Amino acid sequence: MGELVFIGLGLFDERDISLRGVEEAGDADFVFAELYTSLLAGFSLRGLEQIIGKDITVLDRRALEDEDGELVLRRAERGKVAFLVPGDPLIATTHIDLRVRAEKRGIKTRVVHAASIVSAVMGLSGLQNYKFGRSVTVPFPENGVVSETPYWVIVENKRRNLHTLCFLDVKAEKRRYMKVREALEVLLSLEEKIGEGVLTSRSLAVGISRAGAEDGVVKAGSVKDLMVFDFGDPPHILVVPSEKLHFMEAEALCVLAGAPGWIKGMIK
Prior knowledge:
Elements (H helix, E strand, L loop, with lengths): L2 E6 L10 H8 L3 E5 L10 H8 L4 E3 L1 H6 L3 H7 L3 E6 L7 H12 L3 E5 L4 H9 L10 E3 L10 H11 L4 E5 L1 E2 L4 E2 L2 H15 L9 E6 L7 E6 H4 L9 E5 L6 H11 L11
Parallel strand pairs: 1-4, 1-5, 2-3, 2-4, 6-7
Antiparallel strand pairs: 7-12, 8-9, 10-11, 10-12
């Protein structure tokens, strides 16, 4: 029986893969990658193939979700397979499902970790990791229907004085990536509809774009200000902080993310 190794690609381009990841991929009999769960803005497939010295087969959502990753699993039954994933390999539930399927079939699995947007957001903003509650995805409206889930997650977290990490929707097959402004528009429309008062134009929010890139942007300010701020190209991610901040969080947001001075009034 073969082996399936999940290898993280990191945040921005093909150089973010670890040395261990390069070694594992170079030693594999088959190398697959998925690039639809997140956008690696500076990524070059050809560049990565040159780094690891192997051809890479890119799989779409259908191959991994609709077909349960059968192509990957069949190859892993016969040899060593490297499966390359944006960010850290097992953040997406799709990849956990694939790993479980492999183990149930007697295929040995291992993980080579890499930088994740989850930890990068905390480091870039200065918000403390133990103060984050449940994370949530803000999806694009479908046929005029807006999911209320992200709004209620923010409500729940704010009641517990916790920050909310909001992943922004990705439609890779359509090359459509939600931006901070679009996410805030969705959340404000839900605020108008539901009216719990957790997110208004005056609320504090933090937007980050192209984490890991030299031209990445981190900006904290009111929702109103962030909606007109130019974050540049995607990927974008959004944080809705708690109502109260630790004094070091407030200081970090001012220094690292250009937050306005009024956030000092949020210090608990």
